[in-house]
Design goal:
- This protein has eleven helices and six strands.
- It is α+β, with helices and mostly antiparallel strands and about 300 residues long.
- The chain has three domains: about 80 residues, no CATH class; about 60 residues, no CATH class; about 90 residues, Chitinase A, domain 3 (Roll), CATH 3.10.50.40.
- A hairpin with a 2-residue loop joins strand 5 and strand 6.
């Protein structure tokens, strides 16, 4: 039975459903694990990996297909990924050959689409190339250092809380805690907050803007180790204990490296487009007429 490439359905893989021999993929694993395959030797981009009606498919063609976001293959091992890409390229060649035979490429609509995608690929390649030049380790570190220098210290609190439905109950709990009972034990017994109850009411570290105003105001005014009076929010009545306070630690360069590089890439590409626009002669032809001015209101007509 002929098999369709697994890429054709909605541009995504359905590995368990569309792979040839899908039943095997669902069979129990063998008792003894197979030995890990040794890494395949690197191939020249010109190495032929398949032929379709005389037309060749090369390792370079597979590399281009592998870079297509629509053909993403997360969690697939390299050998299987290669086989899937070869299957896809075979289907692509067969389909393209059929389209050529049917003179699809001679239609004006196809010519316009081809010109559009050529321009798009050229722009993408140009922006990617220029971004690689600009986004150096030195530039990323310099931006990180500049950003960190401008950051203001931000206070964080590590606190616990107990949430109940009414003020009377909250007052009783506050009295028990101020008399010396263990906060985590009382939280586990009485708190209505399912998210923190099992953790003894522990909310971890948070900055002021992460909590609703009455809760945050009370928590940040408390000294470490102190118990609050009952605090009302839209969620109910809270009793808070502040465990620790600190200035929020600045994330390291290694922690922020990917975000910094992504920002630099976007900024570089945006700056390139802005500069190209400034240097280009742009003429809009047949633009839509300006929207008519709104009709005056009744009292404005007088």
């Amino acid at each position: 039975m002929p098999t369709l490439s697994p890429f054709w359905r909605n541009g995504a893989l359905a590995l368990g459903l569309l792979l040839p021999g899908a039943a095997l993929a669902q069979a129990p694993a063998p008792a003894a694990p197979a030995a890990a395959p040794s890494a395949a030797p690197a191939q020249s981009p010109d190495t032929v990996v398949a032929k379709v009606n005389g037309a060749t498919i090369t390792a370079g063609d597979l590399a281009v297909a592998a870079d297509d976001p629509a053909l993403s293959l997360p969690g697939v091992d390299e050998a299987q990924k290669r086989n899937l890409l070869v299957d896809y390229m075979v289907d692509l060649k067969i389909g393209a050959q059929a389209a050529e035979k049917d003179k699809v490429a001679e239609s004006p609509d196809f010519t316009r689409k081809l010109a559009y995608f050529r321009d798009k690929l050229l722009l993408d390649e140009y922006l990617e190339r220029e971004a690689k030049k600009a986004v150096t380790p030195q530039a990323a570190k310099a931006l990180y250092d500049e950003t960190v220098k401008a950051m203001k210290p931000e206070e964080e609190v590590h606190a616990r809380h107990i949430l109940v439905d009414n003020e009377a109950e909250a007052k009783k709990i506050a009295a028990r805690l101020k008399a010396g009972e263990d906060f985590a034990k009382v939280a586990a017994e009485t708190s209505k907050d399912p998210g923190s109850k099992a953790e003894g009411g522990d909310l971890g570290w948070f900055t002021k803007e992460r909590m609703v105003a009455p809760f945050a105001d009370a928590a940040f005014k408390l000294e470490a180790g102190k118990i609050s009076d009952p605090i009302k929010t839209q969620f109910g009545w809270h009793v808070i204990k502040v465990e620790e306070k600190r200035s929020k630690p600045v994330p390291s360069f290694d922690e922020m490296k990917e975000q910094v590089e992504a920002y630099l890439t976007r900024k570089t590409q945006q700056d390139i487009i802005t500069k190209l626009r400034e240097g280009a002669k742009i003429e809009r032809v047949g633009t839509a007429p300006a929207a008519p001015a709104p009709a005056p209101k009744a009292d404005e007509k007088k």
